[in-house]
Each structure stands twice: as C-alpha cells, then as structure tokens.
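Checklist before submission:
- one chain only
- standard amino acids only
- sequence pasted in full

Submission:
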Amino acid sequence: MHLSGALLLLTFVVPPTWALDAYGAAPASDPSADVPPFMIHLAVLLSCVGFHVTVQIPAGLLGTWLGRHRTAAVGYALVLATTAVLMTALLWAAWGTSPTTQLLWLWADFMARASLAMGAYVWLSRRGFGSRRVRAAT
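Returned file contents:
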C-alpha cells in the first residue's frame, strides 16, 4: 500500500478543482482573505491522507481478496468497484443524500486518482512480492 499511497500523493501534483477554486478565492496578497493559502495546501494533503486511509487501503485489501483466484483485469475491476462503493459511502456519510454536481465532480476526481494508484497496487499484488513459494530441493 505504500506505493499506491505515494502514487496517490503524486496525482495531487495536479491540484483538484475545488482547491483551485479555493486558491483563486483566497489570494496571497489579500490579508483579509478568509482562508490563508497554506491552509488550502493542508486541506489537499489531509484529503489525500483521509482518502488513502478510509477508502484506498480497505478497497485494495478487499478487492484483491475478492479477486485472488481471478485474472488481473478482473482483480482490477473488483478493486475499482470496491473503491467506488466506499467512495460513495464516504461522500454520502459526509454530505448526506442530496447529490449535487459538485459532489459528482469530487467523486469522479478521487476515482480518477484512485484508478492510477490502485492499478499499481493490483500489479504489485499480482507480482507476489514476498509471497512466492520456494520449492524444496529434492
């Protein structure tokens, strides 16, 4: 999970749209701005960590367990389906049941970022690092 978490963090090099909107609303030269610019960067970092802990790790573990005896493509699809369900549950728990266009864009943004990171996780779990059996010499 360390690699997929690092890849998820690297996807935030391209900032989310909500962070760009907030950054445009809080210029650094305006001392009366509601939110200082460093808080926006902190919110992006905390959203990445929160997503990694609440969605990405459980989805990776559950998805790879569900797809353990299947092909890599099926395993990847199961991981993404689990990610989608957990992300939907997280947004529903945080913002309630009123779907808005902003929540749909937020869901799509995190799913696009997660698809890259989870692909790396599925690839590594299929490679079997640390789990290869060594045959005894006879």
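Reviewer check: The mean pLDDT is 77.
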